[in-house]
Amino acid sequence: MAKADRNTAARAAVTGENYAQALSWIRSHGLLHGLAPDAASAEQQALEAALLFALARPVGPLHPLPLSGSLFGIAKASPGPGDELRLWQATGAEAEVLVRLLPGRTSETVSTVTGVAGLRWVRDGKYLALSRVGTSEQVLLAAQPRDVRQAGRLSAEAGLLPLWDQAGIAFEDTPRRVIDISLAESAPAWSRALRRPLQAREVASHWASREPTLAELAGDESALMARPHGPVSRRPQIVHVRSTKGGVGCSTLSVQIAYGLTRAGRTVALVTDDVMLRHVAEEAADDAAVWHEPFAPAGGGRLLAASHGYFGEHLDVRAAEATGRGEVVVLDVGGRPPAELAGLPAADLTVLTDHYRARDWVQVDVIDRRPEQMRVFAALDKRFARWWRPSTEQVDAEQLRTALDREFFYYAMLRLEAPDEVDVYDVDDAEDVEEWWDLGADGSPGHPDDVLPPEDGAPLDLWRRHFLDFITAEGQRRHPDVWDEVRDSWIAHNRLRNLQRLSADGDAIEDLAVRASEFLAPLASEVDLQPRAATVEEQETWRTAKLMRWLDAQFNAHLRHDAAHLPRSASETVMAVLDARFLTYGPHRSEGFAALADEVRGDEWWDAAAAARSLDGSAFPLPPGPDQDADVREQGWAAFLAAVEDEGARRHGEVWSEVRVHWVEHHRRLEQDKREPFAPAEEELPALRRQFAAPPRPGHGRGGGLGLGHRPVGGRGAQ
């Protein structure tokens, strides 16, 4: 076995981590701190000792969890340098562990405290951060708020009164001091045991009557001990450059820091995004290489730079590589949440960027000079937005259907790219299953543009059945009270919403109309409305405008999402496909289309829906290339048409002669009008609006609100 493998196995043998987790930790931290570091501070050791003591010797009616397969319910740990510690419970024991850790009392009249006195939790991504009131030390536990709710139920069944949802209570202070004093000498051993649960469970059966010792938890000291000598002792200094959100100059600041350190004579490894890397590396960039060496300031050090990808998908890998390349590593982390930074080298310095905000430095008085009636309508909009806040708790059938709508959208997008990828999640990965089923955990709605393809644009019903069959067993286990109802109704529910072209969190117009009326009903008695209360006529005008704005937004979404399926003739459809493909491959000179010879033979190249999807993120019209006058542009269009001539004639022989004659002029007008491919002409919009507002076809759902129905715009164009 290779040396790296022995190190990985030695860590996994005491922490319970799997091979990949242990290997990732070693690659991030090296051996400078040892393979299973102890807590660095006495305060952290005291917290960890109190946690394990509460599990090993619970007070009151609770009993210790069995040691088979876990250390009193703790299956694995990830101890890091300093005071870092993450814990994972045995599968299914999440609430059982929490009810033994979080404090409670045995009755209203008796002040016996169970669990860890003063312990509270806050949400930290996939973890609960456990800490005691008034202290900064914490332990991250892989659990969710729903596990806390289940722990509350277990607490009630045991006759306990939970204290963890209250502020610090005075009578918790005495039990807290008592346990800290009693564990003062043995805290290092209890803490080490919690950090090495796989090793500790072999001797933990004796701890009901005696304290653990460091000696019995030492393990193979030659393998686990810190190794401060050799190249690993020269660990680079790590700088994280973070931001509160995008667009505040995080990447720019990363480059400035990297160049400043290079100018000071240091060897710097910079990890930033694609755009900034191209700006920094310029002609030094090699498309075939991952790492580049931009020109450094004269007389300075050396600068190496790499991209972590457009969405940061390679950040962990590039960061690990950077630690072997520079004395200082500068990581352009951006606005990623802390949970996504777990695999990065720990920061020696974190720099945070934010927008300059004048309100932090000066006082600004805003005087609204709009007409009074306009201010009344604006006040109604603002108040309605605050009033309509849908619940994020996944507790009933309707909310569960909405969560499945959101997850099915992501599943369908994956299958559009990989039709044979039928798995919804990895059933063999407990963490992946848990994360998937924590539906809507972040409480944030989906994007309104997250709309499924049209019903005739993909085999959605087949995918819905695969999706539902895959998750049914787990759904029945997790939501037994509502799952049968959801299973029997979700496919029809999801299809109807798609026919109405609504996103998972989008509101049907009939719902919006009802909620707007409910909102307006009590306003007549309000006396604090600004600038004044709305009259009955103004309320009705506001309600009507709200529904009209909904119709406008939905109509625009239809034109965007269903562009490939708007009604048009066969020749117009083919020309729209050519428009989109020219945009995808442009701008070009005439010699740039030779590569199309093979690609145009694929069915997807000519598919209207696929061509429309290829436009995502593109700008239109195309900017002219360098030195490209009108003649050169004409030549480019003609060359493109010639490159697809043979395949176009073979596939669309009945209309190809018409396409060949008219496409160049058609495309020129499209650019002059600054319309995207597949977008309808201005003169077509009135008819499309009438069709959109017409009563729906049978089986396509009901309209509502103002008496205006709605349905998908158009069907599949002739191909």
Report on the structure:
With 719 residues, this protein is α/β, with parallel strands linked by helices. The protein has four domains: 3-224, no CATH class; 236-358; 391-504, no CATH class; 567-679, no CATH class. 44% of the residues lie in helices and 9% in strands. Strands 11-12-10-13-9-14 form a six-stranded mixed β-sheet, with helices on both faces. It has a five-stranded mixed β-sheet with strand order 1-2-7-6-5. Strand 6 and strand 7 form a beta hairpin. Helix 1 (3-15) packs across helix 2 (19-29) and helix 4 (94-101) crosses helix 5 (145-157). The protein is globular. The two termini are 60 Å apart. It comes from Streptomyces mutabilis. Keywords: ATP-binding, Nucleotide-binding. Residues 692-719 are annotated as: Disordered. This is CobQ/CobB/MinD/ParA nucleotide binding domain-containing protein.
Radius of gyration from the alpha-carbon trace, in angstroms: 31 Å
The main β sheet shows up as: 6 strands, mixed
Computed structural class: alpha/beta
Helices, by number, come to 27
- Overall mean pLDDT stands at 80
The count of β-strands is: 14
- Beta-strand percentage range: 5-15%
Would you identify the regions where 5 or more consecutive residues have pLDDT less than 50?
229-233, 390-394, 696-719
Q: In what order do the strands lie side by side in the largest sheet?
A: 11-12-10-13-9-14
**Outline type:** globular
- For the record, the count of structural domains works out to 4
Q: Residue share in helices?
A: 40-55%
Q: What's the N-to-C terminus distance? A: 60 Å
